[in-house]
Amino acid sequence: MIFDALKLALSSIWQYKARAALTILGIVIGISSVVMFMALGEGLRVAVNSEISSLGANLLAILPGQFDPSQGGGFSTNLISGDILKLDDVTDLQALSGVQDAAPMTIVGGVLRRNTTVAPQTMLLGSTPEFVSILTALTIDQGRMFTAAENTARDRVIVLGSGVATALFGDDTAVGQTVLIGKDSFTVVGVTKASNSTSVFGGSDYASMTFIPILTAGDITGGVKVMRILVTLEDGVDTERSVKTVKQTLLVRHTPEDFTVLTQDDLLGTVNKILNLLTSAVAAIASISLVVAGVGIMNIMLVSVTERTKEIGLRKAVGATTAAILWQFLIESIVLSVLGALIAVGLAWGAAQAAARLSPLTPVITSEAIALAVGVGVVVGLVFGIAPAYRAAKLDPIVALRHD
Amino acid sequence: MSPVSHDHHPIPPVVRFANISKTYGKGEAATKALSDASLAIEPGSFTAIIGPSGSGKSTILNLLGLLDRPTAGEYWLDGKRADSITDDGDRARLRRETIGFVFQQFNLLPKATALGNVMMPGIYTSLPHRKQRATSLLKLVGLGHRLHHLPSQLSGGEQQRVAIARALINEPKILLADEPTGNLDSKTGETILELLKDLNKEGKTLVIVTHDAYVAEQADTLITMKDGEVV
Asked: A interface toward B at CB cutoff 8 Å?
């Protein structure tokens, strides 16, 4: 009986295919936009997560100022302050057992150029030699990293990001050449290479990261400012315990507490929280269109019931029960709506393929999203099909047969 | 065990109306469409119900076909008390197992083929081998070459033949035809009437509601209606 009802629904949809197509257009638009937004959100989440993971496992970041990442932000203005964290903190952390490496980081303002050629989008950082080994995504491609001795001596040496080297030197060898930061000239001692150079963050990607010794940076900017300390833990160390030890060590100099220790999990948690919120908000807005689509289905089904009054009378005369008529129209509206949902998933899939090809972001359609789309299809068909189906089922066969 | 029958008929009638009345509306506005009608239709007979419009013909047809319920009286259909069945599902079941309708307007589904139209009532009885049965019925009514035609591609007479095949698919006890020749020219009407008579000769109980004297002449039993009464 269910099989017959399904066949009946499909055949009557087929018989009125032009109208069916118009009816499901709304559903297709509504559901495909919801699925597409969810896919974009998921794609963004995957990309950001892999970006964060590529920073290297066991990475801790110490930030000036306090904020609770589990609250999703509340960023303090101290976050880029260079006066809270000190180089002595780095030395203290390096001495801790369980800590593999620790390196300070500062952002240096100023334009990097070679003669009159300016390197666009350069992220100029001051640090120590350990920095490159902490960022596992970075390796030295040509030359070498500057040394600890060069840092202590405040030598004017620089390691260029691969993108920066190409911008300034093209195919020429950069190592041994001279570049300028403002009026200060630096000797290029190395060029880095990123193991994964594509980044959804555009400007801040590894190819643009360029390093000078942090003490040299202090010289040319008027004082050493430590804006971040990056710490890697030894393999197999309990992260939670290590974070506690790191905090206790820093608290000796920093009481009351004026710093934040971020783990990768914190970072991932914060990012995922924000992205999930964003995705559901956008999907919720898009789902308003589903209500409009549902009302569309209801209207068309009501028209269909009126047009097919005589058919309903006939079916009752040949022995269809009220329930059979109710199911016939209900299943028809559910089938219509689920059909729309399936087309919508197909469209969203196509759009995801196109987006993956044309942009750095790869939208991800999860099986949950597909299940949700089909589920929404069933619910919309059911909810908005009830009234027309009930009207059809309640028709008096004598009156219906006389209808023109 | 069944009690000893004192009935004079060896075979009980397939339809029996005992003092059936039908009133539409209530109180002051009540109109009596049928009053105190009693009649019997023997199995295998050809009965014509005749009378001018407004005489209660349609009311009898609707009551007979279980599309409506009498206000008073008893309706026995195929040995079962039918007027007291209130459940929609039970009435629908009795209807589809007992009655085959043929309408003046043919009432075919416009978007379904001849075959699809004939098969349609079989859905509600979960009839096995629907397609084969529908095909042989269409051959029986002389439309073996029109199986996949839409109603719009068929003549009026052919459409009525499809409708007759449709009425037969669930092997009803009674073929109930409402002015079956009313929409056809007299020559085509005659062939349709011949087809119905042939089916009757093969044993199908035939009831035709009509105001056409020519059709009425062919019947072996006449029930004449006037002002809501059987005369």
From this structure: 1, 4, 8, 11-12, 15-16, 310-311, 313-324, 397-398, 401
Tokens coding A342? 């399936």
* Number of other CB atoms surrounding residue A279 within 10 Å: 18
DSSP run (H or E) holding A268 = helix A264-307
Q: Is the ipTM of this complex over 0.95?
A: no
Q: How confident is the model at residue B163 (pLDDT cuts 50, 70, 90)?
A: very high
Annotated domain spans of chain A: 2-51+271-402, 85-257
- Would the CB atoms of B88 and A1 count as touching at under 8 Å? no
CATH number of the domain located at residue range(s) B15-228 in this protein:
3.40.50.300
Q: Any idea where the domains of chain B sit in the sequence? A: 15-228
Tell me how far apart the alpha carbons of residues B128 and A216 are, in angstroms, rounded to a whole number.
92
* Chain B environment of A8 (Cβ under 8 Å): 123
Which candidate from A11, A322, A324 shows the least CB-CB separation from B124? A324
Q: By CA distance, what is B93's nearest residue in A? A: A319
Confidence of residue A69 (pLDDT cuts 50, 70, 90): low
Report yes or no: A81 and A130 within 8 Å, Cβ to Cβ. no
One-letter amino acid at B34 equals L
Examine residue B3 and say whether the peptide bond preceding it is cis (omega within 30 degrees of 0): no
The C-alpha atoms of residue A203 and residue A211 are separated, in whole angstroms, by 16
